[in-house]
## 1
Amino acid sequence: MVKKQKLDLSRHLFWKKITRLFRFLLVGVLGFILLSLINNLAIRLPQNLTQDVDAILVLGGSVQREIYATELADAYPKLPILISQGSSEPCIVDLFRFTGSRKSNVWLEKCANSTFENFFFSVPILKDWGVHKVKVVTSPTHLPRAEWLVKIHLGAQGIAAEMSIVKETGIPGNNESLIKTGLDITRSMVWGIFSQIIRPYCSDVTELSKVDLNNWKNQNYQCESRLRLYKNLQRKKQGLGF
């Protein structure tokens, strides 16, 4: 009986220590998250708002955004450009060739399958680049959801942003609804907390200048017609917009 009581007491003390350790770690993690958020939102973000744009993020879903990316590549030759899940790689290569725009320091992220994931995978890349302020390219058909996600995902990391809105033609690449917007805002706010301690990794990031077109020869991919691209670019030059 005495041995059993001692064994029970030993087990009780052991689990008591484990519980205390767990509570200590939990308080430490929550404290770190809180301090990180405060630092990013209250200190880094206001500071970065006064900085110049040092990177460009293009949200996939529209060839017009990619056409605009070619213009930005020429207008800002030193800035890195990240196109998050846009058209197929050979299509974007052809587009940059067609417009004669620079392909160096233009990167393609192919992990995202939604607007939420555009930021989920792109923000860690921007942080690795040491970005302070980013120009985000999207379309009117993608608002206000994209703008909310910009504020939440980038703001939670202390990265400032400015929006560049490109008009769509034809069928929009994004269909917005209050439900979709509400769900994405909700999970983005939750992720804004966990993103202080977790960094997603995208294994499918390629520099545009290094895309191997030979790998695409036997694959069935489709691009916007060259005729349509030419007409869009001509309209842009004439000041008619997209």
## 2
Amino acid sequence: MKDRIHKTKDLLGGYLCVIPSAVVTQALAAAGPDWLVIDQEHAPIGMENLHAMIAATAGTACSPWVRVVKGDEACVKPALDAGAEGIMFPLVRTAAEAAECVALTRYPPHGRRGWAPFIAHSRWGVELHDYLPKRGSETVCGLLIETKAAVDNIEDICKVEGIDYMIVATFDLSTELGVPGKFDAPILLDAVKHVEQVVLNAGIALGASALTREQAQGNIRRGHRILVYGFDVLMLKQYARQAAEWANS
């Protein structure tokens, strides 16, 4: 996945998984997305379910990422050692915090990830002692830009080496800017435009929500390559409501 982010211009789309179910994750992974984010920040997903959900992506081309609660070793290390290929870091505000995120996803001497891929090596089909040389540099590090501080510091954040992609998270960003859910508010649009310009000029892959065809195509026109198609639980709810409408129409 890291090569596809950096060495191609591919559009890479995926979903966020908040349902703590390996069955749901497996079904989504088999449907063909490039990545899935297993969400430990906002979903009731513990370690046993996390490992099962990561394992459920095996046999597909889907890359398993984990959104951790925060950029902390206690959150990141278990996810990587369970076999995650990527970590999505929320609420990054400064270049120093971004550098810490990168360090948590890399082994020494380039970072400070501890060595213990006792479970992770099986997910990637390598022997235990081959995990570091064959998989150790493949971890994807992504940042969510969702605070005013991140917008203000975006130039310095983009100078940090090792960031693979950034996603503009407009739900949190609109809330912090005082216009929660008002995605057409000028203050939010100006912030997003500034982030887009700086991130793209830095050559970092950029993403955002692409919940509709129109939103996806608009993002692509503005240079986005990471497309967030939706949340599993909201998709389930949407189709359940749709089915009810069919019956009552």
## 3
Amino acid sequence: MTIEAASLQATSAAAEPGRARRRSTAASIGLHSALIVASLIAVFPVFWVLVVSFKPNAKAIEATPTLFNESSLDNYRDVLAGAKGAFLSWFGNSVLIAALTTVLGVLLAATTAYAASRFRFPGRRWLLLSFLVVQMFPFAVLIVPLYNILLSLGLQGSAFGLVLVYCSTAIPFCTYMLKGYFDGIPGDIDEAGRVDGLSPFGVFWRLVLPLAKPGLAVTAFYSFIVAWSEVAFASAFLSAGDRSKTLAVGLQVFVQQNRAEWGHLAAASVLVAVPAVIVFYLVQRFLVSGLSAGSVKG
């Protein structure tokens, strides 16, 4: 009986800290209420853009707005049918530039990160330090030097020149992220691949990359978003023709100095957000593990 009593007493003592750490009902209600309010504040602007996208311009900014009165698909029809003449061209330009930036940026970042993770070569630390320093500069101060570089290469005003600019801004972050992920993959895998007769690139392509899917998903999503939603570089480095613009730049057509077409702008904004949402849905299951691995390794 003494042993049983001592065991019960020890179990009770071990459970007491758990009870002490348990939140009270009032604290739990307060926490969840604050989270709900914060979520509503974050979601409401997006929801209201969606509502405005179904309203005519005259009703979009009325003093007492309503949710569903006089709603229609006219704004979407006008935008997609070419009321502004070039929306589908903007969409095609954005898809092309974002796709090239994603593929080229992830490929260059992955090879660079793998080399920095697996090999020890002169200048390795300075290379990684230079990537970190580049991230410290505001992108706005890079417009003039990048413009001069593209002008000297004959790429000013071209989509490929803009892709190179986006890669130059995305690759430093992507390289740091992937290096941290590659550091977490055991080097024994590389040795086993070489024993089986694979070349160094074969080891990288056939063994390491399949294990780094979460990290690749994070860097691909980041590269895509950089190219899809950026405005300053696209405005400076693309030619002035209406059909050469990207979606983010083309949206400025709907809001000018003397007029503002809020319904059309909201509809176009919703259409612009759809591809980004699709890409996020495709990679979201990899994002948490990829971000956490890349942030703690290195």
## 4
Amino acid sequence: MRQPLLAELVAARLRERILSGELREGDLLPPQEQLMAELQVSFGVVREALRLLENDGLLLVRRGNVGGAVVHAPTVDRAAQMISMVLQARTTTAADVGAALGHIEPVCAALCAARPDRARTVVPALRAILARQSDELDDLDAYVPNARRFHEAVVELCGSDTMIVVVGSLEAIWSAHESAVWSAAPGARRRAPRPVADADPDTLNAPMSRRVRRDALRAHENLLAAIEAGDEDRAREVASAHLSLARDRTLAWAERTTIRAAAVTPAD
């Protein structure tokens, strides 16, 4: 057998051990000499197999005295980075991603409402995020990630692994790109201790004014209420209306922004 084919077979065997959970995130693969003996292949075959797995993103090979091959199990963040590369190659805009989320994220909200265990698994988690979002309403640096975290949690808690991976990847891509526009939005203030009545009227309807932040918080509260009540139709309706309004506020930015894979960085 030619060496590349042997390396592919070895890589396939090791890949299966990672995907099955036998090897977990952060685990070290056995030393190459041990792999050579276990699999009865040459050093060159093992090295090529590890290179293939590193290209897949399943391993991080460290060289030197503290070297070794560290397992990187597949995650939604890593899937998002791969999808973002495909989207960038197709010159896809952020508006396109936002429109897709507007159609499918409400399905995740309805799935949350349909969960029989929602009172134990979904509602407490969303309520904790909402509490923090409310407490930090006037701190833009904290508010923006809190607001995005609520949307991401609705997907993560929907109970469908397929939706969690697919929609979660799009959420990660959108969050990575949207954060830049909010932090630079006209009318946005890092802290707004003054009451909204004292604010400049010209900024009240700016993309990240206090009024806009408060309205988004109220929409999240309404969505949580629908989920807690188990009202799937209402959850879908509230999520759809909220996402449509949010998309309108970012439309100009989103239409001229092309997805960049470099903006989507998987957590190590």
